[in-house]
């Protein structure tokens, strides 16, 4: 039923101006046109991120969006240079190396947007 259809990640924010700057300028997502005043649309790779104003912004305590990248360390370093602060978690089986969590072939890092929504970047190295 839904297996042949694309999904859109959806993130609630309080301040659309701050969100536009964060998602567009800081994260480098391409802004797309929006027909609605309370909605911003962004393109990243082959996916769309819909950002909308909500009083419930930042209340999710889990990861909202995860991007698969080739090099977590490089992306984390670039984002850190733009002022992004990374979250450090104590998770079984993962070792923290700087801002990057490592578990076997998997590397991941998490950060929050201005409203506290948690986002991640992840990669797996090939052997």
Q: What would your notes on this structure say?
A:
- The structure is a single chain.
- The protein is an alpha+beta fold.
- The chain has one domain (9-124): 2,3-Dihydroxybiphenyl 1,2-Dioxygenase, domain 1.
- Helices cover 17% and strands 39% of the residues.
- The protein has two helices and ten strands, in the order E-H-E-E-E-E-H-E-E-E-E-E.
- It has helices spanning 16-26, 72-81, and strands at 9-13, 30-32, 39-44, 47-53, 63-68, 86-87, 95-97, 100-103, 106-112, 118-124.
- Strands 5, 6, 7, 8, 9 and 10 form a six-stranded mixed sheet that branches.
- It is globular, with a radius of gyration of 15 Å.
- The chain starts with 8 loop residues before the first strand and ends with a strand.
Mean pLDDT: 94
Q: How many discrete domains?
A: 1
Number of strands: 10
Helix count equals 2
Rg measurement, Å = 15 Å
Shape: globular
- What's the CATH class label? Alpha Beta
Please describe the biggest sheet, giving its number of strands, its sense, and whether it closes into a barrel: 6 strands, mixed
Query: Low-confidence segments, ≥5 residues, pLDDT <50?
Result: none
CATH H-level superfamily title? 2,3-Dihydroxybiphenyl 1,2-Dioxygenase, domain 1
